[in-house]
Amino acid sequence: MTDPPPRAPGVGLLAVRRLRLVEAAAPPVPPEEQRAMHRAWDEAVHANPSLFDGPVAACAGLAPEGHHGFVVTWVRTTYRRHALRRVPGATACLPSLFVSVLQPTDDGRVLVGRMSSSTAAPGRWQLPGGSVEPPPAGEPLDVAALGRHAARELAEETGVELPAEDLTLWCLTRAENGTIGVQFLAPARPASLLGERFTVLLSDGTARGNDPELDRMALICSQADVTALGGTQVDYLEPVMYRYFAP
């Protein structure tokens, strides 16, 4: 008998074979909450000047559609709106929509990275990935677009480049606050190659004066390795790794 999966607070995993994304209009922010949002954003930028108020896609709903199929409703907004999460009692908060990549090695381990001090979550261990950016008006946000975004995040954060078509839709994560993560699986690569690419990425970034998004990588092969990482971890990491390594 295997041990039951760890239960991260409010995080569920959903098997998915088909995913459809539908755009909707972002709900308005009441005037009083707008003022609080701007104050919270200004305080966050003062604490971390690397934050920027760029466009981002947020999740407005998730519904099943057939066998192992789901529909994600998404809206266009900016990172500033996420500052509402710092405002007690705010009613206009929007959950995040993000992509992550499981990058395995050919000896059965998986790459994880630690967020650098210049990011919004310094010291947090997670899979390579990031918030979804909305496409230009008139272009669709679909699984292919999510795959391209995930491949770009993998390259930018680890130095590992691969065609987006090589990524496989693997599962969805759903947090208690409605945040949806779209998890992709990459083909296995030699561990030595992953280490070399990451080292070159950090070296090139330092030479150009750029702060890395990840300042450290690790290769894990068990639930015990996840625990041994120490520090903080993104909420989905344990359940995703349990599912990947489960016998």
TrEMBL record:
Query: Taking every annotated instance into account, which residue ranges of this chain make up the domain Nudix hydrolase?
Result: 83-247
* Keywords carried by this UniProt record: Hydrolase
Pfam families per UniProt:
NUDIX
Gene3D superfamilies reported in the protein's UniProt record? Nucleoside Triphosphate Pyrophosphohydrolase
Statement: the UniProt record of this protein carries the keyword Hydrolase: yes
Instruction: Show the GO MF annotations.
Output: hydrolase activity
* Entry keyword Hydrolase: yes
Name the SUPFAM superfamilies on file.
Nudix
Q: Indicate what this protein is called per its UniProt record.
A: NUDIX hydrolase
